[in-house]
Design a protein that fits this description.
Layout (H helix, E strand, L loop, with lengths): L10 H12 L6 H35 L3 H4 L1 H27 L10 H22 L5 H7 L4
Helix pairs in contact: 1-2, 2-6, 4-5, 5-6
Length: 146
């Protein structure tokens, strides 16, 4: 008997939905309003705690001395570009110039979905950060301390 709150517009909608689902006729309107406010505060606190947790993990990664950890997200982009170069440029050139028939290679659909998702989030986050946009979401994506 789970409650699906995905797709709701806000924390207020989630709180109202929960109150109306579990106590539709057992509370007066004033009690429902009070319960909704309390539930909104609890849901917002939970959301803030999750965002702060993600932010602190990213900040900890960025502050450690290991250069590879700091560059892990860009490294995924660079490795993807390398795989694309190998499969679609280098190996076909080798085949053309050596006249040897290499096996047909292609990158799987899962690679394209994952790599496009990582690149999209990274590019959007960095663009927003460079344009001066600040929010909890931008800070979580980029690992900024602001």
């Amino acid at each position: 008997m789970g409650l699906d709150i995905s797709g709701l517009g806000s924390v207020a909608d989630a709180a109202k939905s929960i109150i109306n689902k579990f106590w539709p006729d057992k509370m007066s309107d004033a009690e429902k309003a009070h319960a909704q406010i309390q539930l909104q505060e609890m849901l917002q606190a939970r959301e803030n705690a999750l965002i702060e947790s993600q932010k602190s993990i990213m900040i900890a990664e960025m502050n450690q001395g290991d250069a590879f950890t700091k560059r892990a997200r860009p490294m995924i982009v660079y490795c993807g570009l390398l795989f694309i170069f190998l499969v679609h440029v280098l190996f076909p050139m080798i085949t053309f110039f050596t006249q040897e028939q290499l096996p047909e290679l292609s990158l799987p659909t899962e690679f394209w979905w994952a790599w496009t998702g990582v690149c999209g989030v990274w590019v959007i986050g960095r663009s927003m950060e460079k344009n001066g946009a600040t929010s909890k979401t931008v800070n979580a994506i980029t690992g900024s301390k602001n």
